[in-house]
Amino acid sequence: MTHSTLSALWSRGRITAVSALCAASLMATTPALADYPERDISMIIPFGVGGGSDTLARTIANVIGELKLLPVQILPENRPGGSGAVGYSSVGKEKGNPYVIATVSVSFFTTPLQGGSPVSYRDFTPLGAIAQSPYVLVVPASSEYKTLDDLKKAKRLTTGTVGVVSDAALLAKMTSNGLGVKIDAVPFDGEGEVMAAILGGHVNVAYFNPSEALPQIKAGTLRPLAVSSAKRADAFPDVPTFSELGHNIVHTQIRGLVMPKDVKPEVVACWEGVLKKVAESPQWRTQYIDRFHDVPNFMNSAEFATAIADTSGRYERLMKELGVIK
């Protein structure tokens, strides 16, 4: 890259440190992509306004904007329908297009496995992950079960899940296999109903994200037994992981971004840099990590790709065991 080219880029007044580095790397290898991004980028949200995926996507876009990491805008667009199929298929079909992105969710994995989507994780390019959302296994404070080992004494347990296939259902199956005790998953219409069921003693155990469980734990109405992350969660520093207690149970919701398949490697490298900056920023910690008590964890594209494949495999095994798919 020549000095005059760099001067021209900087004179636009829109390219910050990160995007200048992106532009520099692109110009050194792929002249056709020298000015990426040249226009605004669509962030497709496969669900409605106000849900967890919507909040995640808009927070990422907001932090990128506040930090001025790109010379263009990220434009969130809700495309709900088909348990995520409408939104994800619209992104997956844009093969090679570096101007459309999406966040991953449970439906990113489960809907394709159930045959409800024309695209699967193989139709996407993982850009990077920036956090993980663990689950905490809880019982009512009045429960006879004080520790994870106490659950082994039960002949049979019940838990609540949102739908038949969910992270809670997956974790219930993993816990059942690990402890050698049958855990029946009872489907409910929403997390609020699951919370009411556990507080009312209608189910024995439940799995919640930290932000859902923390108020009740602080109020003394729920007792946490274990968390599903590889390391202890900051929200529950005194609560052991399943692994610490001798059970190979690790499962979290991975928070990250994907693009359609076959985008240029230089674009992926650019976004890795952007997402690393987001993950390390105080804005991200304040607006998302501290708010939802997630675990900060940056993954580059290759690491995220491995995590996505592993997660899909876990869902596939669960769904086969439950008889949801063959």
Automatic annotation (TrEMBL):
Lineage, top-rank taxon, reads Bacteria
Signal peptide residues on this chain, from the entry's feature table: 1-34
Q: Which UniProt keywords apply?
A: Signal
- Tell whether Signal is among the UniProt keywords: yes
User: Pfam families, from UniProt?
Assistant: TctC
Q: What does the similarity note say? A: Belongs to the UPF0065 (bug) family.
Name of the featured protein: Bug family tripartite tricarboxylate transporter substrate binding protein
Annotated organism of origin? Flaviflagellibacter deserti
